[in-house]
Amino acid sequence: MQHTHISAKRRLFDLPLDELWRYRNLVWLFTRRSFKVTYMQTVLGPLWLLIKPMLTSVTYVVLFGRIAGLSTDGVPQLLFYLSGSALWSFFASCVTDNAATFTKNVNLFGKVYFPRLVMPVSSVLSNLILYAIQMLLSFAFLVWYMLRGTVVPHWAVWPLLPLLLFQIGALGMGFGVIISSLTTKYRDLQVLVDFGVTLWMYATPVVYPLSTVSGTLKRLLLLNPVSAPMELYRYALLGVGTLDPGAIAWSVFCSLAVSFLGVVVFSRVERSFVDTV
Amino acid sequence: MPEQELALRVRGVRKQYQLGVIDRYTLQAELQSRWARLRGREDPNARIGSAAPGVRRSFYALDGIDLDVRRGERVGIIGANGAGKSTLLKLICRITAPTEGEIDIWGRVSSMLEVGTGFHREMTGRENIYMNGAILGMSRAGIDACIDDIIDFSELRDFIDTPVKRYSSGMFVKLAFSVAAHLQSEIMIMDEVLAVGDMAFQHKCLSRMREAAEAEGRTVLYVSHNMSTIRQLCSRCIVLDHGRVLYDGDTEHAISTYLSRSLGGNEVDMDLAAMTRANQRVGGDVTMTRLCLENKITAVYEADEEIRLLLTLDVKRPVPPLYVRLTVRTDADVGLATSWSEAFEPQGVGKTTIRLSLPSGILFMGSFYASIGVYRRDEIGNMLLLDHITRAFRFEISGSPLWNTLAHGYVQLPPMSAGEIK
Lengths: 277, 422
What we know:
Largest sheet of chain B: 6 strands, mixed
Oligomer: heterodimer
Order of helices and strands of chain A: EHHHHHHHHHHHH
Distance between the termini of chain B: 69 Å
Structural class of chain A: mainly alpha
Number of helices of chain A: 12
Strand content of chain B: 25-35%
Largest sheet of chain A: none
Low-confidence stretches of chain A: none
Number of domains of chain B: 2
Largest interface: A-B, 37 and 48 residues
Strand content of chain A: under 5%
Mean pLDDT of chain B: 82
CATH superfamily of the largest domain in chain B: P-loop containing nucleotide triphosphate hydrolases
Shape of chain A: globular
Low-confidence stretches of chain B: 49-54
Distance between the termini of chain A: 34 Å
Number of domains of chain A: 1
Number of strands of chain A: 1
Order of helices and strands of chain B: EHEEHEEHHHEHEHEEHEEEEEEEEEH
Number of strands of chain B: 18
Structural class of chain B: alpha/beta
């Protein structure tokens, strides 16, 4: 028989991963529900998933490509922006979705117990699926440009892509749950999140390649843990990108540290956040 | 008690809550306060007259609870609002953590602290069953195995593929309870969930829970203000008061302990002179000074018992005939009924006591507040207020276990006439 011990004393690293596994069914149901509920009673339904990135990328083409004249390392602009913003929005929504985990689910968390980590994990999962759908568009263009010989992907690096997505998801979730844990006490962080993530995008080589900057600025940009994966991703997909082993190692280290810290902080706050929200 | 017989063991559990609007700081205010404290200055965000910096007012919602629940027991938890019932359930369900103490649970817990937790309006009944089941810890295969039982129990087969936003609240409850009742858990925890839903279904739920406890050895913890459901379901009952266990044992005894306690001790003899009055009091010709519930030790009446009051008036100068008005309000402070007394004329001045008697069998069940007032008629026949006290006393009518105030109300009307038409 299952025995549960609840104690006032808390352990520092209390990771209920086995419990999370037992509740995997719930993770999946939450993921499915977030889709269903978003696109229920909309005319175009999931088509929005393709329209939104397309319109964003066209805007980027006009704004950054034509008007500002930013380089794309010789990659066709639409493909460059399409693939870059897909990965970025995966990361960004992992951060913003999770940043509201506690405050948004007060009612549910206040009434029933399940491992709270189910929420962040399912949110990463549903964002991953959204990303995959957006990538259909990028792949269509990729194939088109490959046939015309304008783009040559580095196939050898492709096996790394799942790891890279995992890393980005973990990093985004880590940041998100840290913010969410803090917002149970300090509401003002919530205001900061959307705004901060928008600014963060410009500090990441999303609408420009890293090769356009050099010196101190480049070193600063590489401190951003999302920069190196972004470049690696473009290197694999589009055949152009700056690979910096130091920066990649730093990024992996950051992801591990942030996601670990995030989960630890989250599990601590989870115990009694219902009392403070 | 040997561990293998236990479902739940609670030892020395306390739960502290902060009072007031703390913890709603902005980050800036918190940094400001810390910086000030660091430099030994006064905290700019401290409220004037509050205690020393860093000391917050707090109270214990639970103050040292020890409890053993054997497997298969059906335990009711009763107590006034704020006694700690819901807090205790929340700790056992792991919604929040105790401040002190330990809790051990043997078996899986399924909780229903609210009706339809996690239900989403846009999803169909069937989808919500899966969702709700998963939230309560069931696997997909587990739900598949009993989904037909759940649907049958809920009596909603025809609507099961309709989004729940189109359900009535009664249907919603039926669905939610059906899921909880079919979970394969060893311990079921419920907080007043049966308060909604129709009588027949309530009855069905109670027997289902009894059956689950008796046949399958499931343990039930049930919080309710409805004494009749507690009576029907529970084999043992705990009375909580201010975060402590006041009584633990036999259900009937627990209920009477709670009722006499919740009515503020034995308030059957009240000094009305000391009570505050409504401000529109006219003159001071007549003042109510004392009110007695005649021949009562506690303010609890049977449904077929007359409520007899002895009201003492202090009459300052000769007055015309007087009338007494008694207005009964429900526990939720909703006006329920008013009774006017016949006219009576006090002889002379000074203290005088009158006996008022409210017929039995109309107010049937519930706990009530009563306000009482003395009136006279003016020249054109309007009632003129002389003295009035809101919430002069409380009383309880125990009614019958077959009666549910939420379904049947508080009042039983006189019998209808009935006759066959030729």
